[in-house]
Amino acid sequence: MPDEIQQLFEERLARYQAIIALEPTDRMIVGGTGSNYFAEVYAGYTRQEMMYDISKWMAAESKFAEDFPEVDLLRSGRIWAPIFDSVGFRLYRLPGNDLPKNTDFQFVEGEWMKADEYDLLINNPVEFLIEHRLPRVLGELKERGSARSYMAFLKGGMAYMLMAQVMRERVLNLEKKHGLPQPFQGVMLAPFDTLADGYRGLQGIMIDLFERPDKVLEACDALIPDSVSCAIATANPLKQYPIFMPLHRGTHPFLSPKQFDTFYWPSLFKAIMLLIEAGYTVRAYLEGDWTPNWHHWNEFPRGKIICDIDNKADISRAKSEIGNNVCLAGGIPDRMFILGTPEEIRSRVKELCETAGRDGGLILNGGCGIPYSTKPENFRAYVNATLEYGKYSDTIKPKLKKAPPPSVGKIPSRRVITPWEIKLREFGGVMGDETLIKEAWETFEQRAFCWLRFWDW
Amino acid sequence: MAQLTDLARALVDLEKDRVNAIVEDRLKRETSPLEIVKELNDGMIEIGERFTSCEYFISELMYSSHIMKEIMGRLEPLLGQTDLSESGNIVVIGTVKGDIHDIGKNIVVTLLKNAGFRVIDMGIDVPADQFAEKLKETGAKVLGLSCLLNIAFQEMKNVVDTLRRTGIRDRVKVIVGGQPTDEKVREYVGADYYALDAVAGVKICKKIYSP
Q1: What confidence tens digit (pLDDT) does each residue in A292-324 have?
Q2: Residue A105 in contact with partner chain B when CB distance is under 8 A
Q3: Which of 249-308 (A) contact B at CB < 8 A?
Q4: Which of the ends of chain B has fewer CB neighbours closer than 10 A, N or C?
């Protein structure tokens, strides 16, 4: 990588890290969104092309980065559709497949776990996933034991590894060619959302809150270790970027404040604390309106979290209520990017720079993303205005943070299906270096378990 | 809620077993199923009120609908040909084409039904001409358009344009709602009202039908 690109990359990353840590920076971040939908379609490819064709996706990212060189962060890719087709994943509808080619992919609500399966989920998640949930959510497994179902496991596993490779290439393309860091890497759902999204579904979980509340609580707690360890497995190994957390059912008014405090928050808090203690930061999308519940974010150590504030909530209020403890992102309504004028954007950016963003700790963004239908002139106005009004200092230059030391004993161990000890017994001992064999065995086992959880949502 | 019967109160308190027991008891005493349904409806109206005043949340709303659905499974065979849905002011509602999300819309449907409206729920991913046809067919004065995705603004506008093209725009009030909408979106779409949330949507429907 040429020196100047490397330097640009480090400057940008250091600025992002400083903002998350609520430390002083030279200026606001430009384009610091987690989900830049506009960047995905700016080059003119269809949504289907973006989700299926890797070369077009990379070309689109490069085109965006070249036309908006001021942008400081760009998420590389979200959905690589072939992996879902490889197993017939039933929770998404995909552009060009079962949606028109220029519509965004969408989530399908459903009951993918039965009410009487809580004990199995809690006590034997591997059996629960392989025997019960996956045959429901992966259409290719519908004929159990058939050649087609074995092929589905094989294809899904190959696609999983290929996707990891593709994502790595894209990340490197953005880093080495354009000096662009990622807004996050690795993902975790709130334990309650795991149940409420892709397991019991919204209808199911709402019944369970009243009819089997103890099981819901027990399951949320049981999900924590695997959720955390699988998130870390896909996170940035240098801990440079936050771990992404799209939070769905914590929004008001899904749950009463009492239900939120009882069912949603405790397991999420524990899971995030495990990540923080392991040296990671977190970027959480507070989707919908979190106003009555967001005070809980003050419970975390300061400067470890970004909360994206969605369209329905007030960024100024968020700033005054949690902005001393967590970094915030948001403030520009999606509607303004889509329907507004450059003048409106400019004046909104100016207002935010003079108020909620005056003392830092704010990333100007739409509601958890920059919308697809953003007018290019509005995005340009947002970039220019952020540079013009978002200046803090000519002398401060944030320094890149070193990866915190590993916190031994704090990270939950990664689950395996067949532990090495059992395999070793079956081998009847090994003749050479056991470690060499054991490490490879466990790596595959651990990755395979995270594959089972990959289909959570 | 002083005037509520014990059955309606059990429903409001979300006590499913008690609701079931009282219904069985009423049936044993040969209370007419229609009378039982009316009591339950009173309970649903009270639940809607509690949601409006933030005493209840979507969780309570959905659970009460679940109790009601189970009970109706028991009562409907006994009701014979009685059609409960043929009365009330009509609201046509749906999620516009291109968007398959319906949680928000379903909440509005529940609240509207609780408030005594006859709701024609067109579902999700509904094309503009189907809205227009249904409005013509039913003579409904209100159309509720819902979306979660901001890609739906253009389609909402298309629905309003279609109503204009088919000559029924003047007799239909259009309400837009959903996560990314606001007053400016309403203006762009050319709708009559923007509903900040489900409760606001129901209030607007009431206002349209009882000016």
Answers
A1: 999 999 999 999 999 999 998 999 999 999 999
A2: no
A3: 252-256, 259, 288
A4: C
- Do residue A254 and residue B60 have CB atoms under 8 angstroms apart? no
**B17 touches A: beta carbon within 8 Å:** no
The per-residue pLDDT for range B102-124, each reduced to its tens digit, is 888 888 888 888 888 999 999 98
* Region of residue A235 (left: phi > 0; alpha: psi -120 to 50; beta: else): beta
Q: Which residues contact B17 (CB under 8 A, 6 or more apart)?
A: none
Count the alpha carbons within 13 Å of A33 in the hemisphere toward its beta carbon: 23
Q: Rounded to 5 degrees, what angle do the CA atoms A88, A94, A99 make?
A: 120
Please tell me what DSSP assigns to residue A71.
Answer: -
Residue A138 DSSP class: B
Is B50's Cβ below 8 Å from some Cβ in A?
Answer: no
User: A174 with A74: CB under 8 angstroms?
Assistant: yes
Q: Is A257 helix (H, G, I), strand (E, B) or coil?
A: helix
Cβ–Cβ pairs < 8 A, chains A and B = 84
* Contact criterion met (CB < 8 Å) for A312 and B179: yes
Query: At A423, phi and psi to the nearest 5?
Result: -65, -40
Question: Cα angle vertex A298, ends B197, A11, to 5°?
Answer: 100
Q: Are A373 and B150 within 8 A, CB to CB?
A: yes
* Residue A32 phi, psi (nearest 5): -80, 30
Residue A54 has pLDDT above 60, yes or no: yes
Q: Which two tokens stand for residue A34?
A: 């987690």
Distance CA A73, CA A329 (A): 13
Cβ burial of A453 (10 Å; 0-12, 13-18, 19+) is: buried
- A216 contacts on B by Cβ (under 8 Å): none
How close does chain B come to A116, measured CA to CA in Å? 17
pLDDT band at B71 (very low <50, low <70, confident <90, very high): very high
- The answer to whether residue B14 neighbours chain A at the CB level (below 8 Å) is yes
Q: What's the rounded Cα separation, in Å, for the pair A15 and A183?
A: 12
Nearest to B58 among A254, A335, A372 (CB): A254
For residue A259, what is the nearest residue in chain B, using CA coordinates? B59
Q: How far apart are CA A75 and CA A184, in angstroms?
A: 7
Contact B103 A109 (CB under 8 A): yes
Residues of A in contact with B14 (CB under 8 A): 210
Confidence of residue B86 (pLDDT cuts 50, 70, 90): low
